[in-house]
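Data availability (excerpt). All sequences and predicted token strings are deposited with the supplementary files. A representative entry, TIM23 translocase, is shown inline so that the format can be inspected without opening the archive.
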Amino acid sequence: QDTDEFILPTGANKTRGRFELAFFTIGGCCMTGAAFGALNGLRLGLKETQNMAWSKPRNVQILNMVTRQGALWANTLGSLALLYSAFGVIIEKARGAEDDLNTIAAGTLTGVLYKSTGTV
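Structure token line:
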């Protein structure tokens, strides 16, 4: 069967463009950061409260560490994904081409901008 599975408007691509994939990338990075941060927060919370007996204050302290680390990592990875996606879309629109050079340039610009605010 050589017919298309989906009906597409005339002139539309069969694949998603960089702009459509940006939403998936940003959301996926936020969720990954939240999961990684929560696990890291659990590890840190258990380590910092190892001398305490199992009680409500210990549980609260562990939960605080889990939520704090989860939010920190989600914000960090989400921000990086937003920068990467924005640079990728801008470069693609400016060049008028979809190729690997856009990806390399977007990643490089994201890294440069992210590290430009920190100390060396």
